[in-house]
Amino acid sequence: MLYIISYKSFQGISVKNYLVGGAIRDRLLGLSVRERDFVVIGSTPEEMTALGFTPVGKDFPVFLHPKTHEEYALARTEKKISRGHQGFQFYTDPSITLEEDLKRRDLTVNAIAEDEAGNLIDPLQGQLDLERRVLRHVSDAFAEDPLRILRVARFYAYLGKFNFQIDPSTLTLMREMVREGALNELSDARVWQEILRALNTDYPHKFFEALLEIEASSHLFENLSLIPETLPRIKHDKRALIRFALLSYQARYLRPCPKEFSELAHLVRTYADQVTQFDTLPASDQVKLLRSLDYLRRPERLSQFLQATQALFPNWKADSVTQATTRLSQLDRASVCKDCKPNEISEKIFQAECMTLN
Predict the structure, then answer these.
(1) Residue 8 has pLDDT above 80, yes or no
(2) Cα(11)–Cα(43) distance, rounded to whole angstroms?
(3) Residue 268 has pLDDT above 70, yes or no
(4) Residue 171: C-alpha distances to residues 108, 110, 124, 183 (Å)
(5) What confidence tens digit (pLDDT) does each residue in 123-154 have?
(6) How far apart are CA 302 and CA 293, in angstroms?
């Protein structure tokens, strides 16, 4: 491990830095560590800058390491001063202790620190909760940050293979926050970021199960009631996109999301049932359906649509659809339109496509 700020004195206060949070949690669970965050005790923004660290934002006391670009945050306490996820005032005095910093965190399993000698500092019994497989909030200050509702649900999904449970007291607090309208304080972008992260876990259904449990689903989705069993099975490199489309087959997302996601979701809601009857349709209706799916210009999206449909209807095979699109893509449309008048082109191509599938 790299600790470039060694133990030293700053105006009589010992300056130390500790590895904190997810890196320790994941390592103790035997997971690969994706990123490391550090907390610095006994320093100031001026000293961090002098050491070559790059500040992140104006008011947030986080700095990037000059070489590794890992995050080093000054130990801080915080005070809620306005609504929303960012409505906090931070206090970063060199006298703030590690224990005070850990107490402001969301979950006990995320509030474990490690010094440069490898010793764990765990004043909130995060290791015990890891052993018990429990996600438990650190303090009542949890309720001050509405984003933590979605973060806990996401951790529930991220740690799905370990069968973690959300502590009953934490569920109660999350439910109360939802009823008081906490989710309405979050920006559309921040909510979507958490949903996207959850969709990219191996157990995404657990995220939505948690939302249902705390009565939060109706604030984000219309008619979300039963999580598709096929949701975790999607292993495609675009799995978040396809999983969102599967959810959207029964539930409509109520906030803005990226166009790529909304378009595929619309196709699945509108055409998934119809495409499973493809073999029974006359050629003209087959062509109209494939045109609605924009098969010629968007073959990749068609492939994603078919994967989502196959996940919804496991006994259905897409072979006839892919064979039809292959035949249609080979049609020489230029020859078909060679002697056509401008107002005849569209109908001529349509007739040629129908004949290709007959």
Answers:
(1) no
(2) 10
(3) yes
(4) 15, 17, 19, 15
(5) 999 999 999 999 999 999 999 999 999 999 99
(6) 6
**13-52: pLDDT as tens digits:** 456 899 999 999 999 999 999 889 999 998 888 898 888 8
Q: Which two tokens stand for residue 100?
A: 């005070």
The single-letter code of the amino acid at 199 is L
Q: Phi and psi (nearest 5°) for 292?
A: -60, -30
Q: What integer best gives the mean pLDDT of the chain?
A: 90
Hey, what amino acid is at 195?
Answer: I
Which domains does the chain show, CATH number per domain?
Answer: 1-132 (3.30.460.10)
The amino acid at 69: H
Give yes or no for residue 193 having a pLDDT over 90.
yes
Residue ranges with strand state E in the chain: 8-10, 13-20, 37-41, 54-56, 62-64, 71-74, 77-80, 88-91, 113-114, 120-121, 134-135, 165-166, 221-222, 252-253
DSSP letter for 25, please. H
One-letter identity of residue 263: E
Q: Alpha-carbon distance 232 to 150, whole Å?
A: 19
Tell me the two tokens of residue 228: 């598709």
Q: Which residue, 127, 279, 253, is CA-closest to 198?
A: 253
Distance CA 146, CA 166 (A): 17
